[in-house]
Amino acid sequence: MFQNIAVQWLIRRVPEFAGIIVTAVTFYNSIPPHYQDILIKVVSGQGGGLTVSALIGFVLWGYAQVISYRSTVKPQAVVEENGHLVTNTLTPSKETEVSKAVENVSSKKTLLEILLGK
How large is the greatest C-alpha to C-alpha distance in the chain, in angstroms? Predict the structure, then answer.
């Protein structure tokens, strides 16, 4: 399961989401009660024009997540030793070599081991 690119992308988002949540809670708890009430109104849709600007930021953040995910799962280009960029067109001998290398790496290490530096 941890070998899946999409799962690895989600795992990389966990610290980001945790950071956003901790920042939001800390910010909310540090502002005066009057501003907390205004913030609740904006988030709940009762803040008039302020809701639109808050929504724009959220939509841009969501768009960045979609682009990040798509970039993660799309096929990557290969740079050969001579510096030429090749997009997924390997010679049969190179393809066999890469397949063997991938099998050796993926069968020996899990994502957790890689993250722990083992």
Answer: 68
